[in-house]
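ok here's NAD-dependent protein deacylase, seq below lol
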Amino acid sequence: MNKQLAEFQEHLLKSKKIVALVGAGLSASSGLPVFRGSQGMWKNYNSIDLATPDAFYIDPGLVWQFYSWRRYSALQAKPNKGHEALAKLSHIPELKYLTISQNVDGLLNRKRNDELDDTYIHDPRKLYEIHGSLFTLKCTSFMCNHVERNNFHQPLTPVLEDTEFEYLNKGKKRSREDEGSVQEQNIDPIDIISRQDTFASTSSSPQFQPVKTIDEKNLPRCPICEGLMRPGVVWFGESLPLDLITGIDNFIEHGEAPDLILVIGTSGTVYPANSYVERVKLKGGKVAIFNIDIDDDVVEGKVDRVWGFKGDAAELLPLALEPLIGKI
Ligand code: OAD
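and the structure came out like this:
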């Protein structure tokens, strides 16, 4: 590890152009769950199954409850030192730098506390949030397409209030009984969403707040046309914002080649994000992976032009980047 770290830092100091590819693992130690593996669940649902246009079309109330909980969790969370290390990197004037983030939690855009200066917030010009943001809302009407950014209201509508707490009686402010249109949902009728009943089946398991059936009129509505609003995130099967994808292509392909790509807390399973690592390598750049789960060969330095730093990105990143960004 020390030899690898020394080699990495030597390369880091020589690098003129750096890309970072960020995934859910960066926010894990801020308390936000990752998508894949045992944590990738919301109540009895697989998070990935809820992140689809089909799930929203079939039951927008169910999907809004999931996103309302994610908004609440993200607002409760604080950026960690890993976020701050990337923010610091983005403010080095002589460095050509870009963060490609798959995260929608907004933690790179916030400070841990108000006493910290603005170099603890990522330079927005160098941050491409390719999967959108939990705090953007979009109108679903084709005729309108209104987009509302930086909406931090919580809950977004009164019926979404109880969805903030995942478990019964845990941190719950007050109980809100059925408001006419809101009822408990006994059995999930949705085929495409996989239900895993094992979670709630033992007496020692925590009891989830029931998922409700919510009438569309009680979900967030468009201020312009009254249409149904949806979360401003990219769902599976949807296109990524063309301007961002073009910007990334230009950054990687044009001008001098990137010297380094930092691959932080991502399983690298989603295209096109996972293609950027190979593209930087093809241009002659090196790869540094920060993840709690890395192949031994990589950790031991046996893979050409790849360093692997195994552990919590929130701890390892500030340490590894220290020669450039100073102590955090
Ligand atoms: P995943 O859940 O697929 O992967 C998270 C990665 O973070 C895994 O490789 C973990 O080993 C690693 N990890 C967990 N805790 C960590 C920690 N403390 N420090 C470092 N690494 C840690 O999440 P993503 O790769 O972000 O897309 O998933 C990519 C996309 O798939 C998401 O943006 C989302 C999802 O479905 C959409 O919703 C379109």
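fwiw The chain has ten helices and 13 strands. kinda neat tbh
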